[in-house]
């Protein structure tokens, strides 16, 4: 066997994230071997990721695995992996809605899904959250079109619109909108909402942890005492939500809320969870928007809840705004979350092969 093994991949920007997209069949199925392959491909654990494809940031240390699906009514399966920058950890417990934006184009480009006309619908099964998402991709020129007039905050320039319609999003990991049955409870004296829509989250008001909610990502990241307090709360939240000991895991995620001040529905900062997101995760936006729409949560009294069953929630974040199209139905004193949709863009950056040491693949037989 050669000293290095090549694996086909496509490097893509998906939404406000970036990383390699692999065919599932090209990556070992054994979780331990797969983790070693992805760590080597990204250059982790090394803060610079100098020996791999990673960009020394959580937003650029992400991987998408995509393959044809055998599920009825589904075109492709998608497994997301968050590769730690400076630790030997590959976490497949959360999903990533930004990387999801590149799944449809990748599936079409690699021949998994045929072009259907000016718009091609790709139904994706998210393995991480066991949910379905429809991606509507611009194929007006008989191929995936990446050029267009759609701008998303956190990404320079414009590109072709990709519509993501999320279905089956309530209770992604816990099976319930409010895993503890409560829209509000206290952890270490702080009022929080523990909610699970697309991703389990602990959401709180910025003022309750001594913040304004309008800080930049750099300002928040510099306050390590703030992160230490949040982490202690997050560990308790994980146990309460039935997720067990979440030490070393990235779920539940966290967000803090404040009143909007730039025309949005709410101002929010999203934590991933040990660093502040430079913009906002798509799955996190779906969860925060559900928190805004549901009565009795920590969002009540500070967020501007839009009217109607079909409405748009605008979230102000460090890089601008993200909009979420929500469909809800009143259910007694509560609410049912039917679906959520977002507009993203993606771009193919490079395709070729990534090289990893052969000894990693040699463990496949032993595994």
TrEMBL record:
InterPro entries: OMA_tautomer-like, PrpF-like. It comes from the Bacteria. The keyword Transmembrane does not apply. The keyword Cell cycle does not apply. Pfam families: PrpF. Gene3D superfamilies: Diaminopimelate Epimerase, Chain A, domain 1. NCBIfam families: OMA_tautomer. Belongs to the PrpF family. This is 4-oxalomesaconate tautomerase.
